[in-house]
Specification:
heterodimer; A: 502 residues; alpha/beta; five-stranded parallel beta sheet; 49% helix; globular; B: 476 residues; six-stranded mixed beta sheet; four-stranded parallel beta sheet
Chain lengths: 502, 476
């Protein structure tokens, strides 16, 4: 039976006529006014006004702190996210993460309502912890906050102490916490706060001499494939590494016909031993600011910041860093992978060289992607980071100025995707890299779109493929060159240039 | 008490045992074996519309979701400002699939995320000053916007901002309605209060503010249809074919003008009773407009509803209605013939919001399927009263169910299909239980009307009978 759903149905004459008829009641703007206004939004005049906006934010590419905190805690074994505040927020975080990962995401809320605004959220957290522990039996409960709890000034430290004193949650259950106000920073800040909260809240046995292992903190990284790749690289080098926090199983669990609330994650025992690691390497800078400070000052341990290992040179640096701290050489197998990735990039370079790019995303991701694009001979033009600060702008500028291919680029911090729309009309590019919401830019400005980042809602499985390491470089090369080639074919479809060999 | 009812009660008791004492006592009132007569009164009534217990992982959302996400969000020619920090607007950005015609960012703003992106300084010094500036900037960026709604997020109410006075000032200054909506997420116990608050703000700021040049005896409002995947359009098609004139859609693909002229209708037709009964009751009191509930899921309910609606009008409408039913009956029978054999006797568990936990039952029955358990995220007593007669005796009815309970009941009842939301979907995939999202139609639709039923039937068939389920190698 042929069934027409929304994709085809509403093209039928009956509906076209219905839509036309409905206008009688809509008091619509005249069609020519709509048309002129649409054109005006593409103009230089509009762009100027758009960039003069001081208060209004339109289509920002950032989420709020507790979402990042949740992603962090999801990377630990038997860990339940507990969010102190309004319940609607938690419904949103769970939906948002499920839509990206296509996985179940568990988290509880303390369901604070109007009376909590008056009396504080103490009774909510006490009852909430009792219910959550009894029902879901986690080994660790990671507490974060919504803006409601932050505005009324809930004191998590004393509330949790009180819960432990009252014996609401048995001894031995870890209850780290982080204050994660949504009106400060973004999801990457929340990740940082929760990582620091967990590292400081879950205390291990500190040994005098460091262990043989290293810690690796990926940062707010939504590519489950990256975690798998990271562990593969470490195992190939025979390096004992603890990934803090590892979402590769919790947000990509095998289908066995049984639903597990806590499938995998960094073991609590490994978390407790993390303090003894020889060194901690972070793969993102802006999502590990406080965490790094904590490791250096409170733990008094070595903390090193690797460039995001996206692209060849960044991966080289990362692996050299691992090699230096672990004393293990980069394996022959990895060296061969490097050769293959470089070979792939060389083979594909003619279609990427000189191509103009617009990039939008989180600061660390952008640093990695820019580096890769420059390595391929691509030219970043618009680099837009809603949640980037002046420090990011400086880092980005310095990376871009270090390459002749970076000459055309302008870095925009604190701007949104409505700004990017104006930029793309004013100075078109060959390829736009962004998340699923960038599809509005794809449609409006007709710029080819490559989906990299978070969230990715409208394409499946992209997050399963690593973008880090040499394998990641091959994936990026594949996506970029073939998106450009698809576009080339589309344009050449009815010309002599419709080549079958490229 | 029948055996089936006893069995169901025993199952409920078992599942409730996992809770701490206090929570168990509170939760067990929300889960009951069905008594279709409803005669046993409060003793067997499902408790609803009260606070969710902390820590049990309620599936519910908040008042902001009810206002911005459900009622106001689909109004396409109004800019909906998510007023507060960035998250709420980000997570509800174009996720509800309320389709609409128009050009995004020019004369249609429903697929946009427009926010004041509160920073710490706004919390400390208040957001009112910046709110005024934001309204001016909206007018400059989107000159064709017919209004601005201010959708309050939690902090707005907590820091004592006076958005009403800013809205009043801006309405005068900008010449378009600027509508304050006090839908802070901590208000109420679920999305439900957000619906009510949104209805009230429409009543206070928009309703009756414009008039239609020409009115007819057949003017109706189509209320409580959010046009998910085009539902309202498929519904409108039926009403128009019956000879009625739909003067306003609330609020799928709606314009603010449709709200303004709505009091001139002769009859209000309400699909989602839960989220929009408030405005219907108001229009009844204020303008004497009667309202009736209808159901356009599946042919049986569609035919019934069409006749129920036609009964309000003259014979010409009644005749046309019969002709429309006659016209579509063969197509509907063909859908049933095509899909019923593969779906017959399959069982379904539902847990949704609004109207669906009861309204979709008939559509499943048309396909030979049986809904054995159902419940509401944010229903009230009147929703449950309307549900009992639709379900068999001893069927399971639950309110504000937790994922723990839902999973425990599903393990015992072994349904062939579960219909619920995105937060539930993938847990059931892991369990190997066929699942469809029944909020968003799982990115399909429409499901309403004659054009929706074939899509519904196709989708339920592909869920239940996909060969992928058989690939799962179950761990013992």
């Amino acid at each position: 039976m042929i069934v027409k759903d929304h994709n085809e149905l509403f093209k039928d004459t009956a509906y076209v006529e219905q839509f036309h008829g409905k206008r009688e009641f809509e008091n619509p703007c005249p069609e020519d006014v709509v048309h002129q206004t649409a054109q005006w939004t593409e103009s230089a005049d509009y762009k100027e006004k758009n960039f003069k906006r001081e208060a209004l934010v339109i289509n920002p590419a950032k989420a709020c702190q507790p979402l990042g905190a949740m992603l962090c805690a999801l990377g630990f074994e038997n860990t339940l996210n507990f969010v102190q505040g309004s319940q609607g927020c938690v419904a949103y975080f769970r939906s948002h993460l499920s839509r990206h990962f296509k996985e179940p995401v568990a988290a509880v809320s303390s369901s604070m309502t109007e009376d909590s605004a008056v009396f504080g959220g103490i009774s909510n957290i006490l009852e909430g912890l009792e219910n959550a522990y009894t029902l879901y039996k986690p080994a660790m409960i990671a507490v974060s906050t919504t803006c409601m709890a932050e505005v009324i000034g809930d004191d998590l430290n004393s509330y949790i102490k009180s819960a432990v004193e009252k014996g609401i949650v048995p001894e031995g259950v870890e209850i780290p916490f982080a204050h994660t106000p949504s009106f400060v920073g973004s999801h990457i800040t929340g990740y940082d706060n929760m990582m620091k909260g967990i590292l400081s809240g879950v205390k291990g046995q500190v040994r005098v001499s460091p262990a043989d292992s290293i810690n690796i903190i990926p940062g707010f990284d939504t590519y489950t494939g990256n975690y798998v790749e990271l562990k593969r690289l470490m195992s190939s080098m025979d390096v004992k590494a603890t990934v803090l926090a590892d979402i590769s199983d919790t947000l990509d669990s095998p289908n066995t016909g049984r639903y597990r609330l806590f499938p995998g994650g960094t073991p609590i025992s490994a978390l407790k031993d993390a303090v003894n690691a020889r060194s901690t390497i972070a793969l993102q800078k802006y999502s590990t600011v406080k965490t790094g400070e904590f490791i250096k000052t409170v733990w008094g341990r070595d903390f090193q910041l690797s460039p995001v290992p996206i692209g060849i040179q960044n991966t080289d640096e990362f692996l050299d860093m691992v090699s230096a701290v672990s004393g293990r050489p980069v394996s022959h197998a990895i060296e061969a992978e490097r050769g293959r990735a470089v070979d792939a990039m060389i083979d594909s370079h003619p279609y990427v060289h000189g191509k103009r790019f617009a990039l939008v995303g989180d600061p660390d991701l952008l640093m990695g992607l820019m580096s890769f694009v420059l390595e391929m001979g691509g030219r970043p033009v618009h680099v837009l980071c809603t949640n980037g600060d002046a420090g990011f702008a400086k880092d980005a500028e310095s990376l871009l100025r270090g390459s002749p291919f970076g000459d055309d680029a302008t870095v925009h911090i604190g701007k949104d995707m409505w700004h990017l729309r104006s930029l793309l009309f004013a100075e078109p590019v060959d390829l736009l890299i962004g998340n699923s919401y960038a599809k509005f830019l794809w449609r409006d400005t007709k710029t080819p779109l490559l989906r990299i980042g978070f969230p990715l809602f409208d394409r499946h499985h992209l997050h399963r493929y690593p973008i880090i390491g040499y394998q990641g470089a091959i994936n990026l090369t594949n996506w970029i060159v073939n998106t450009l080639l698809d576009e080339m074919d589309r344009k050449a479809m009815f010309t002599q240039s419709f080549d079958v060999i490229r | 008490m029948s055996t089936l009812t006893q069995q169901t009660q025993k199952m409920i008791d078992e599942v409730m045992e996992a809770y701490p004492e206090k929570t168990r006592k509170l939760r067990e009132k929300h889960v009951r074996p069905n008594d279709p007569t409803g005669e046993c009164g409060s003793a067997c009534a499902v408790k609803s519309n009260v606070k969710s217990r902390p820590g049990i992982m309620t599936i519910r959302g908040c008042a902001y979701a009810g206002s911005k996400g459900v009622v106001w969000g689909p109004v396409k020619d109004v800019v909906h400002l998510s007023h507060g920090p960035v998250g709420c607007g980000q997570y509800s950005w174009w996720s509800r699939r309320n389709y609409s015609n128009g050009i995004t960012g020019v004369d249609n703003f429903s697929a946009m995320h427009i926010t004041s992106d509160f920073q710490e300084r706004d919390i400390v010094f208040g957001g009112d000053k910046r709110l005024a500036k934001i309204c001016r900037e909206i007018k400059e960026m989107f000159p064709l916007a017919k209004g601005i709604s201010i959708q309050s997020e939690c902090p707005v109410g907590l820091i004592g901002d006076d958005i009403e006075s800013v809205a009043k000032k801006m309405t005068e200054e900008l010449g378009i309605p600027v509508i304050p909506v006090r839908c802070e997420g901590f208000r109420g116990v679920s999305q439900s209060l957000g619906h009510h608050i949104a209805n009230d703000s429409i009543r206070d700021h928009v309703l009756g503010k414009n008039t239609l040049e020409k009115v007819t005896d057949y003017d109706v409002n189509l209320i409580g249809d959010y046009n998910i995947g085009g539902d309202a359009w498929a519904s409108r098609r039926i009403l128009e074919e019956m000879g009625l004139r739909v003067i306003a859609q609330w609020s799928g693909d709606a314009t603010i003008n449709e709200f303004a002229i709505a009091p001139q209708a002769k009859l209000n037709l309400i699909h989602c009773y839960r989220s929009m009964n408030y405005i219907c009751r108001f229009m009844e009191e204020q303008y004497g407009i009667p309202w009736i509930e209808y159901n356009l899921f599946g042919p049986t309910k569609i035919y019934q509803s069409m006749r129920k609606i036609a009964a309000f009008f003259d014979d010409s409408i009644k005749e046309r209605t019969e002709a429309v039913i006659a016209k579509y009956t063969p197509a509907m029978d063909a859908v049933i013939d095509a899909y019923r054999p593969a779906l017959k006797d399959k069982t379904v568990m539902l847990y949704v919001g609004g109207l669906r936990p009861r309204h979709i039952i008939g559509a499943y029955e048309d396909l030979g399927m049986e809904v054995i358990a159902t419940g509401y995220e944010f229903g009230h007593n009147d929703d449950y009263k309307r549900t009992y007669p639709e379900m068999k005796e001893g069927a399971l009815i639950y309110d504000d169910i937790t994922p723990y309970e839902f999973e425990a009941f599903a393990k015992r009842l072994k349904p062939d299909l579960v219909g619920s939301g995105i937060k539930e979907k993938y847990a059931y995939h892991k369990m190997g239980v066929p699942f469809r999202q029944m909020h968003s139609w799982d990115y399909s639709g429409p499901y309403h009307g004659f054009d929706g039923f074939p899509v519904f039937a196709r989708d339920m068939d592909m869920a239940v009978n996909s060969p992928t389920w058989k690939l799962i190698r179950r761990k013992r």
